[in-house]
Amino acid sequence: MKILTPFIFGCASLCVVTSQAQTAPATKAASGIAAESNFALPATDDGLAGTGPIRRYDWFQKLWTEKRSGWAKRVKQDQDGVVFLGDSITQGWAANLNQLFPGIKTINRGISGDTTRGVLLRLQTDVIALKPRGIVLLIGTNDLEEAAAPESTASNLKLILAALKAHNPAMPVVLCNVFPSSATKKRPAEQIKKINQLCYALLKDEPQVTLVDTWSLFANAQGDAKPEEFPDLLHPNSAGYIKLSAALRPIMETVGLAPAWPDDFSPEPGFESLFNGRDLTGWGYLDKPAFDGKTVSDDGRFAVRNGRLIVTVAREERAHRKLMTTRKFPKDFVLKMEFRASPNADSGVFVREPQLQMRDFPIAGPWLTLKHYRPLDWNEIVITVRGGLARATCNGEVLVDAFTVPATGPIGVESDHGQIEYRRIRVQESR
Question: % helix / strand / coil in the chain, to the nearest 5?
Fold first, then answer.
């Protein structure tokens, strides 16, 4: 890494002015330096919140001061946007955030080289002062390079989330897992996985926080970054940023940070909708009252938004729930639906009770060889039940040619982990 010239705050030449002509420019210069110094890093960690490293390399101190003093001039115009907060990965997003997230006012608050403790230090001035609509947070990889323990990183993340909650408990926060990297970058896979595992514990009592498994999105079989997406094994290239944005967009739609275009689909002749696109009428948990008229299940695991039945991200690492139709289907039928899975999401479709596994197939399987599956996009499932046997396809490819189903029973979807959306759920029963 190229080391930049140290940023030196000098005042001696500004302290003595011998003429009226010199006064105005000197005062202006002094004012500018004083303003920048307000955003300089503290000389020591004494009295600062959090634990672990705050970087003080010359290049970082210069960048830190320049970025923050520049942002201070934009506080008014940067109000009420979605703040992307983090380190160099976030900073590198700046050039195309608006293109990747159309319809969203995006505010970039990434500083290359920053750590979780650094973010905590600047959180109030750089972020909370903007009164943001929401936060997309990606931070922690530089903690590892500075040999911080995963527990320290998780502790700082907890403080960051607590501060955001204290500011506005209704403000959505999308928390990204730390990306894979490489042991050659002082970021071994096991350490990264430990941080990400600890992140799940932060969600249990924080309904405003939604975790996205961006580690699984990018990791290879060894848990490291892929050179084709991370040429330096640390920073994504343009393909990596496009993939990341595609993974985040559905989550942001669900939590209300991105507009989602309503689905005005109408079933083809002979089919009837099992899901009205407005609420959970006709669906519920077994042996419990249906959620008729409700847009969210009592435990929050299933929600309806913009014509989609959404299996939301669990508050814990794994959470099994079954949402079933109150109606049973004793006749032969054809069931059609579309689904879109977030990274590493896991769900299932129940056919009179037996489950057809539904996952983010390229990551979680079980059908890893599907040629027509569209990751992070909509895919069509068709299940045909004839004479007690069911056949299932995904975008025309056979998933299961014949599996046994009971004589009657409901249709349902499962929640486990990650977000999966279903739409256009419709059935055609035999006469």
Answer: 30, 25, 45
